[in-house]
Design brief:
By secondary structure, the protein is an alpha+beta fold. The protein is about 40% helix and about 20% strand. It folds into two domains: about 250 residues, BirA Bifunctional Protein, domain 2 (2-Layer Sandwich), CATH 3.30.930.10; about 100 residues, Rossmann fold (3-Layer(aba) Sandwich), CATH 3.40.50. The structure holds one RNA strand.
RNA sequence: GUGGGCGUAGCUCAGUAGGUUAGAGCACCUGGUUGUGGCCCAGGAGGCCGUGGGUUCGAGUCCCAUCGCCCACCCCA
């Protein structure tokens, strides 16, 4: 209470009890990514400020006011992963090694926004990106992968799909939209009045009811795609259909980063308050070239918000069903001699591969039994003066209260513990560890 | 950056019209069992009542300021 040092606003510790949920999310994600032949790439958190300015867009909110930047050094803590990933892709010439790269990365991102539910200043994303293919099947496959990941996590979300066109068709549409908005300028909210000149597409996803009503009649980008974009979008949808991915078209969906082209999508939930997007992404066919990479190399990717996934898991019924890993054995030592001996025995058992817990504080047997119970250990090895005399330990099965005398040798103990009981069923330790 | 709400034990919260040493449940520790967990019982530890100032004989309670957190706008994963 007197402690003045505390985590910064918008920065959170992930404590034991919650961390298991995070590990679950990561484990499932890695499994799904592997099945789709994605390789992990690990990227630095600090990058040149210019990298984000040039990719995300000089006039986006992220770049204008949300980045953690060391101004004097011109470096910034990454607010998203795609830019870094492409930087690495170009820097190491990954496009030479393999024409189509499938990469994923997991880690913290930083944006100086006002924290609220599902939104922190340090937050974590899982990113998957495919570089080097404009094939619409890649788009479909990527969305299918996201859907599979979410399904295996057990969270239910809906997928919304749109196309933003390309430099061929978007400018003309943008102009037409701008004209439409200008005609209704007075009915728009203040934000949208500003947006209608700077970034008219953003007006489309304004939450203000009056703006929404106006925008219903606005020209749709989907009806103004050039033939190439139109066909691409058709094939993306055909791919989704073939893979059995449910989705709905949302012609008002706009992404907040400037680099998106053609396919954009969001995985949406209604269970997170104001933060509806659990995952989102899209195609960015011009970005690699724009950052100094090879000409014409396209890309597409998505990011999932891990805090949001964890929140959904916590809110759903099965959220707390994920137990912690329990020790195989708890050693209860009584008296100095036994304690000295067990200190070494625990180490031997640990190096033999067992998960061993022990109390080093010299507490009463009753207290140690309580601790053992709390850790969930399946077995307790009791060693006191009597046991030390005849070199026999007392091994108690915590599930059925049976006790037996055992030889105090690591090898013997290990083989005795090769079986344990979970919900009445016998499992081999090795099977569980593998 | 703009609103609104809330700060009392590790956690969740009581605290009556300002009035003795500030409470409960959970969690923690010890004991009831000279060496045996879950349940139960008894005891214990743990609070400058976010911080600073003011009003008052007296402030957790009223006033002001300040800091912190939460939710929403905005933005986004």
């Amino acid at each position: 209470m007197q402690l003045k040092l505390q985590a910064l606003n918008g920065f959170k510790d992930i404590l034991p009890g919650d961390v298991e949920l995070w590990q679950f999310v990561e484990t499932i994600a890695r499994s799904v990514f592997a099945r789709f032949d994605f390789s992990e790439i690990r990227l630095p958190i600090l990058e040149p400020t210019e990298l984000f300015a040039r990719s995300i867009g000089e006039t986006t909110d992220i770049v204008e006011k949300e980045m953690y930047t060391f101004v004097d050094k011109k470096i910034t803590m990454r607010p998203e992963a795609t830019a870094s990933l492409i930087r690495a892709y170009i820097e190491h010439g990954l496009y030479v090694q393999k024409p189509v790269q499938r990469l994923f990365t997991i880690g913290p991102m930083f944006r100086h926004e006002r924290p609220q539910k599902g939104r922190l200043r340090q937050f974590h994303q899982m990113d998957a990106e495919v570089l080097g293919s404009q094939n619409p099947r890649i788009d479909a496959e990527l969305m299918a992968m996201g859907a599979m990941l979410l399904q295996e996590l057990g969270v239910s979300v809906s997928l919304e799909l749109n196309s933003l066109g390309c430099p061929e068709c978007r400018p003309a549409y943008r102009l037409q939209l701008q004209t439409f908005l200008t005609e209704r300028f007075d009915t728009l909210c203040d934000d949208c009045k500003r947006r209608s000149s700077t970034n008219p597409l953003r007006v489309l996803d304004c939450k203000n009811p009056r703006c929404r009503a106006q925008v219903q009649a606005a020209p749709s980008i989907l009806e103004h795609l050039c033939s190439a974009c139109g066909q691409h979008f058709e094939e993306v949808q055909a791919g989704l259909g073939q893979l059995g991915v449910q989705y709905s078209l949302n012609k008002f969906m706009v992404r907040g980063l400037d680099y998106y082209t053609r396919t954009t999508f969001e995985f949406i939930t209604t269970d997170l308050g104001a933060q509806a997007a659990v995952g989102a992404g899209g195609r960015y066919d011009g970005l690699i070239e724009q950052l100094g990479g090879p000409k014409g190399v396209p890309g597409i990717g998505f990011a999932m918000g891990m805090e949001r996934l964890v929140l959904l898991l916590q809110q759903s019924a099965g959220g707390d069903a994920l137990g912690r890993l329990c020790p195989d054995l708890f050693i209860a030592a009584l008296g100095q001699a036994a304690s000295d001996f067990c200190f070494g025995l625990a180490h031997e058992l640990r190096s033999a591969g067992l998960r061993v817990a022990m109390d080093l504080e010299g507490r009463s047997l009753k207290s140690q039994m309580k601790q053992a119970d709390k850790t969930g250990a399946s077995w307790v090895l009791i060693i006191g003066e009597d046991e030390m005399k005849n070199s026999q330990g007392l091994l108690r099965n915590m599930k059925n209260q049976e006790q037996q005398q055992v030889e105090l040798k690591a090898g013997t103990l290990k083989s005795l513990l090769q079986t344990r009981y979970i919900d009445g069923t016998e499992f081999s330790v090795k099977k569980i560890l593998s």
